[in-house]
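step=encode ok
step=design start
structure_in=
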């Protein structure tokens, strides 16, 4: 039954005008046709572009899209069956400032052009704790260098995680790879969130499916805010 629902979700995703699923040959050693064109061809405005990597069910992208109608949001993940939920919600609520992109983040440079992205969110990624998986960590040197290529000067990256290991690793990688740590806290809701204005507190309080599970288990939520040093 679950398998049938997954197939139905995949099929429905293909009907959503705001869901993009490039084939491998559209992003492997070439550029996807939407690269540099997200505002012009899809959103049809010049509003800031915010990208969420590892968006899962899209709770963050949808939550921010509701709150900030004058910004554009793209949720990126490879798990299409999960992403369907966010895409479906955006359709049901007629949120025309949200899109979803199903691709491996390894190919993300093929999807976004230089200075195209204003802000990045990384929400509860797999920490990839085994040494042999280090290259897949979304704040590791391979990815953190990719972000610099399409993030605007002074563009902000936000990380939320419940993993002590991943949080500490990310702080170290920022410092090692020429990023400025603007704010960090190992316990966002206890000691960090009050440092921001009401609007941003509400943004930080959006909870993904996994964050809800982690907080119910009593895990502390870590938050890291950083940006590239301007060269």
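sequence_out=
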């Amino acid at each position: 039954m679950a398998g049938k629902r997954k197939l139905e979700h995949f099929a429905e995703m293909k009907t959503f005008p705001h869901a993009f699923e490039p084939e491998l040959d559209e992003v492997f050693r070439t550029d996807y046709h939407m690269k540099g064109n997200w505002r012009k061809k899809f959103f049809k405005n010049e509003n800031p572009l915010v990208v969420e990597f590892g968006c899962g069910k899209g709770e963050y992208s949808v939550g921010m899209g509701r709150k900030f109608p004058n910004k554009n949001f793209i949720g990126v993940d490879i798990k299409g069956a999960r992403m369907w939920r966010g895409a479906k919600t955006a359709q049901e609520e007629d949120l025309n400032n949200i899109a979803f992109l199903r691709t491996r983040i390894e190919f993300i440079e093929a999807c976004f052009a230089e200075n195209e992205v204003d802000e990045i969110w990384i929400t509860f990624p797999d920490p990839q704790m085994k040494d042999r998986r280090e290259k897949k960590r979304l704040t590791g040197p391979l990815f953190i260098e990719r972000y610099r290529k399409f993030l605007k000067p002074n563009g902000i990256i936000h990380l939320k995680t419940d993993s002590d290991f991943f949080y500490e690793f990310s702080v170290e990688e920022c410092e090692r790879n020429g990023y400025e740590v603007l704010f960090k806290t190992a316990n966002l809701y206890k000691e960090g969130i009050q440092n921001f204005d009401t609007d941003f507190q509400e943004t930080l309080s959006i909870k993904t499916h996994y964050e809800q599970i982690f907080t119910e288990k009593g895990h502390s939520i870590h938050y890291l805010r950083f940006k590239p040093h301007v060269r």
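step=design ok
step=annotate ok -> The radius of gyration is 17 Å.
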